[in-house]
Amino acid sequence: MSDPQAYTVGWICAVTAESVAAQAFLDEEHRGPRHVSQHDNNSYVLGCIGSHNVVIAALPEGEYGTTSAATVAKDMLHSFPNVRIGLMVGIGGGAPSQKHDIRLGDIVVSKPGDGDGGVFQYDFGKTIQNCSFQATGFLNQPLVLLRTALATLRATYEMKGHQLVEDVNKNLKKIKKRSKYKQPDPASDRLYKSHVVHPSNSPDGCDIACGSDTADLITRPKRDEEDLDPAIHYGLIASGNQLMKDARIRDKLAAERDVLCFEMEAAGLMNHFPCLVIRGICDYSDLHKNKAWQGFAAMMAAALKDLKLDKAEDLSVARSPHFLVPFTSDPDFVKRSDIWAWIEERYAGPESRFALVGMGGFGKSQMAIQFAHRLHATSPKNSIFWVHSSTRATFEQSYRAIADVLALPRRHDPDVNILALVRDWLQQEDVSPWLMIIDNADDVKMLLSKDANETYLSYLPKRENSKILITSRSWDAADKLTGNGKMIFRVPTMEEAQALQLFHKKVGRDVNEAASLSLIKTLDYVPLAVNQAAAYIYRRSPWVTVESETSNVDFEDDLDVLRGYSLVAMTATPGLLEMHSLVQFCTKLWISEFGSADQWKTLFLQSASEHFPSGVFETWHQCQTLMPHVQPLFDKQPLEERDRLEWSKLLTNVSWYLVMLGNYSRAEVIVQQAVSTRTEVLGQEHPDTLTSMANLASTFWKQGRWKEAEELFAR
């Protein structure tokens, strides 16, 4: 069976003719996938085109539209996590105009331009004569790689022409019912004027029901020898959930938006599975539907497989080196030679785990950050991963981030233990050497506690030529992690010269030497305290001097000052801050002492409700970042009505994300609470309640509990 992680091109088809055409153009067909995600209902055909492994999936029989396409793409990405290139290839209805001479058998390729991503999503109330339309949102563009390949191919065809018809005829030999896919007689290509309507109750074809009166037809000249025939058009494709069969609306959209083609699936993909859309023209988006051209149109679209994708990402994504450290290098870093030498010696030695232990603020994490950046610069073939281990939630989030950057197969499968998945992968011999930094491993109880299967300690990988560097305030925790007290370095405060050098770098200007020495001595040479004092003086110069600050180390407690004092640190992600654990502890203590805990809990809930997005594909990274922070709110229903509504909104969005992630059982538990709360406060018919119910029904549906889902949908 074939390994799903080896496939990087995803090809989605809507109807049988498109799937047949896609398979006909495979250079080689592979055996079925070794495994797929548990809740993946797709059926796949695997093969290769040139050097690229391709997975082909079709929509379920009888299902059309943007929602079905989005579901197929989502399940494909779950089961084939290394898919980087998306193709939506098949048939569509043309929108010929004076500007664009589009004929049956021609090809339309989505091309971004004029504020559109190449696909325009529209929505009709009813597709009848004279109805209006409405754009329903901007859709993403295909990858730069695909757009570059398209530009190259377009230039090649204009320079040398194409051999697409010859390719179609050659590959027809692979199809048993090949007559359905041959090019029909060009005489059957009739373009009726917009006012000519095919009688709805007529069983006859257009040649009989509508006739061939030249007064009803648009006459088009024969293409000359300079024209590509069939032609390839590049531009905007309109996509909606209903079949376009209204010539007047077709012409209106063609005139107003320069639409070239109509179809029913692409809009469901572009924001989740940004792909190149290729459509063979089989009719003219009117009532004169012509199934005779569908097979050939599908073959012509599939024939456009010559896209030069030589720059596609390496198939072995997971085995390539990765750098996942959420902090930038500090340009003012002062090397502490004894600690640095010890780290380098242990990294080069035979032991796989070593630890830095010391009080908070002594510089353990900063040493680890700088070592990670130094190693990345000197050994770029090594992977480096950062794991926040202060809580279970941050530990699991870090492992999920590693799984994502490695694009590990089955990482979205709700039945897969993500911790074991990452550990087992990193223990494989053919994975590039790695360094894992376990930061803030202070809680022995957490490390020795179990999830459903094993202790968190057991999820640390072991592999020859790979290392784990631990930072901790607890000698006991470090000893449990390393298993050897000789592999632990107790980090002291800085030496006087080191603290003075750090202070000068951070202040950034000439200061009184004696006063500086007095200040850093007062601060006991603790790196974090020295950093804070220097930042305070720097931010307030020239009004604050070292001399005045020696007798007054009184810091403000707003966020801006905290950042200046390095009590919160900038991460490598713009706008994302890392708060020091000391600040978290002191803040909780201060809130508790002053009796304002309830007020701050309410503010936090309101902020979480406002900023946790719905679970659509493009917000997954934001959802993943926020999950550890909002998790403590799930089981604590507020008392105030307003807070309960904010809480239910948060739970609804969280459940949406979990459903998209494939964690259906957990999503069900969470959204059940939202449904109960909204029903009690707002009533069963309120739109917000119905939204939560729809999410709950979705969890039932995904788990195969059809009757329960239908009962909810029926409400």
UniProtKB/TrEMBL annotation:
GO terms for molecular function: ADP binding; catalytic activity. SUPFAM superfamilies: P-loop containing nucleoside triphosphate hydrolases (SSF52540), Purine and uridine phosphorylases (SSF53167), TPR-like (SSF48452). Residues 29-289 form the Nucleoside phosphorylase domain. InterPro entries: NB-ARC, NLR-like, Nucleoside_phosphorylase_d, Nucleoside_phosphorylase_sf, P-loop_NTPase, TPR-like_helical_dom_sf. This is Kinesin light chain. GO terms for biological process: nucleoside metabolic process. Residues 353-509 form the NB-ARC domain. PANTHER family: AAA+ ATPASE DOMAIN-CONTAINING PROTEIN-RELATED, ATP/GTP-BINDING PROTEIN-RELATED. Gene3D superfamilies: Nucleoside phosphorylase domain (3.40.50.1580), P-loop containing nucleotide triphosphate hydrolases (3.40.50.300), Tetratricopeptide repeat domain (1.25.40.10).
